[in-house]
Structure formats: C-alpha cells, structure tokens
Amino acid sequence: MRIVLVGPPGAGKGTQAAFLAKNLGIPHISTGDLFRANISQGTDLGKQAKSYMDAGNLVPDEVTIGMAKDRMAQPDAEGGFLLDGFPRNVVQAEALDEALKADGLKLDAVLDLEVPEDEVVKRIAGRRICRTDSAHVFHVTYNAPKTEGVCDICGGELYQRGDDTEDTVRKRLEVYHSETEPIIDFYRAQGLVVTISALGKVDEVTERAMHALKAEKTA
Q1: At what angle are helices 90-102 and 61-72 packed, to 10 degrees?
Q2: Residue list, annotated binding site for ATP
Q3: Which distant-in-sequence residues (6+ apart) come within 8 Å of 32 by Cβ?
Q4: pLDDT digits 0-9 by tens, 196-207
Q5: Which of 5, 21, 46, 61 could be a cystine partner for 39, CB 3.0 to 4.6 Å?
Q6: How is residue 157 annotated by DSSP?
Q7: What residue numbers does the annotated binding site for AMP cover?
Q8: 150-197 confidence digits (pLDDT tens)
Q9: CA neighbours within 13 Å on the CB side: how many for 210?
Q10: Spatial CB neighbours of 156, under 8 Å, sequence gap ≥ 6
C-alpha cells in the first residue's frame, strides 16, 4: 500500500507510522529522516536543505519534494510506503500526485489521525524530559514520575522543553490548520481519506488504523 499519514502535532504520527509500516511490510518515510539522511550523506539536496536550515529558513517545497521522490524510488519502496510529514501542504500533495502518476502509480489511502485540540495541548504540554538522558520521557498525567521533577530511571532533573509550552503548542496547531490541514480536503475530493480517532492506547489506535486501511483496500 501507498499511504500518507496526517494529523496534528501530538497525534502520535511517528509512533503509529512505525507500527503500521512494520505491520504492512512497507518502509516508513518521514520528513525528518529524509533531511537527516540527505544532509549526512552530503547529497546536493542535503546541501541545499542545510544551507536554508543553517540560515534559520524553511526548506523550500522543491527541495523536500526532490528528497521524497528519490526515497520513493529506492527498491524497498517498490511495493509501497508510508509517508509521515510529507506532503505538508497542497503544493507538495500535488507534486506527489504528479510523481506517482508519472510512474503509473497512485496513493491507496490517506490516514487522518483525529485528536481534539485540547487533548493535543494536554499531551504535549504535559511532557517532561530528563536532562541527563533525553530518552527518559514522562508525562504529568499519563506517565507521572514517582517524585515530581525527578526521573524514575536515573534521578536526573525533569524539565519542560521550550517548544512544549501551551502557547507554543497552540501556535504549532495554527500552522497545522493553515498549511497542512487543507491537504485533507484535497485528498478527500479523491476519495482517499480514512479518518480514525487517535485517542486511547497506542495498540488500540494501531488496531483501529489497520482495520480501517484493510477496509479501504478491499472497498
């Protein structure tokens, strides 16, 4: 299957993408991984992306699109892929359609992870990270440490990242609504959108998503 995964910040896209890609036997292609791979390998697109990022600017659509096309052309993606973070706007969605059409291919589904805005804020603003080891992540509601402000694992100090504050999260949501959410209508017009609730335990959401995708494939 060829799938695009969309949803607001805090919807759990990265977590779900990893599980879904494994269950479906297709590569998980994320924008972040594309950037890191191209920059570390010193590709022309990577050098272009780095120059924009170093200057504090957004990477232009054409650079991101070029990276995505190169990745989708690799052998492991011949049988399908799951795109996470791309496309992030209608321009990129149109470019993806054109690239697939040129190869006689098309998307099978666009999986929309739906989460209420207040839940997104609660999920992200409640995160606390260990200063000693950033892999140790807690949450004031869903995974509270035994002692407030102290990591259960190593005893390090827990803190809230600057981009996890409520004000920052709401600004990120505004960007999502204005830039990325319109692609849902773009794909809905093609009959590709499958919307599921991303509330509940991780495995519950994964099972919900797999069921919806299988139903879409057999429809």
Answers
A1: 30
A2: 10-15, 127, 137-138, 200
A3: 85
A4: 999 999 999 999
A5: 46
A6: B
A7: 31, 36, 57-59, 85-88, 92, 161, 172
A8: 999 999 999 999 989 999 999 999 999 999 999 999 999 999 999 999
A9: 15
A10: 130, 131, 132, 133, 136, 150
Please give the Cα distance from 39 to 192 (Å, whole number): 32
Three-state SS for 3? strand
Phi, psi dihedrals of residue 170, rounded to the nearest 5°: -65, -35
Helix (H, G, I), strand (E, B) or coil at 46: helix
* Domains of the chain, earliest start first: 2-115+180-218 (3.40.50.300)
104: left (phi over 0), alpha (psi -120 to 50) or beta: left
User: What's the pLDDT at 112?
Assistant: 97
Residue with tokens 């919307």: 195
For residue 6, report the phi and psi dihedrals to the nearest 5 degrees.
-130, 160
